[in-house]
Design a protein that fits this description.
Non-ribosomal Peptide Synthetase Peptidyl Carrier Protein, Chain A, 9 helices, mainly alpha, 50s Ribosomal Protein L19e, Chain O, domain 1, rod-shaped
Length: 185
């Protein structure tokens, strides 16, 4: 039997293409002596006729990339895929922005640069998404003269707070008449 026929039968047995079938060079005469399918089966079992191994995709580059990712590389803005808010949601951006603005307001209030009424007003403006960022908030405070100067802070601290004077409660007339009547008796 010719070697082409042996290869054809072997490809059918091994379920591979004809081009993948190989015959060992030293055993070519033995392969050419094969006459039946059973003879080819024996050649396959003995390893005279074999198929080339499947060529896979190398993992070398993938391993290198994975090692770099573990170190924290390749994770910048250019590596992100997806739409505008798919990587960082709008809610996360909102939380970040509001926390920054509230922290600034808290510090201004602690330093005495904003009084309590202005603080409350600005707090609600922050909640209502009035300011795009910190600088916009500071601009609003300066334009509306809500920021106190250092001299104003000193005067406020030195001034003693006025305590409200309690007025005596008015006594009902019916009670006063009863009391007077008891005294007269």
């Amino acid at each position: 039997m010719s070697l082409e026929t042996v290869k054809r039968i072997a490809s059918r047995l091994l379920k591979k293409g004809k081009n993948k079938i190989r015959i060992k060079q030293e055993d070519v005469p033995r392969a050419s002596d094969a006459l039946t399918v059973e003879d080819v089966k024996v050649l396959v079992q003995d390893g005279v006729v074999y198929s080339k191994p499947i060529k896979g995709v190398s993992r070398a580059r993938a391993k290198i990339k994975h090692a770099q990712l573990k170190k924290g590389r390749r994770k910048g803005r250019g590596s992100k895929k997806g739409k505008k808010f798919s990587n960082v949601s709008t809610k996360e951006l909102w939380i970040k922005k509001v926390r920054i603005q509230r922290e600034l307001l808290k510090n201004l209030y602690a330093d005495g640069r904003v009084d309590s009424t202005a603080r409350k007003k600005i707090y609600y403006l922050i909640k209502g998404n009035m300011f795009k960022n910190k600088s916009a908030m500071m601009l609003y405070l300066t334009e509306h003269k809500l920021l106190l100067k250092e001299e104003d802070n000193a005067e406020k601290k030195l001034k003693p707070k006025k305590k409200p004077v309690k007025k005596p409660k008015p006594v009902k007339k019916s009670i006063t008449k009863k009391i007077e009547g008891e005294i007269n008796d």
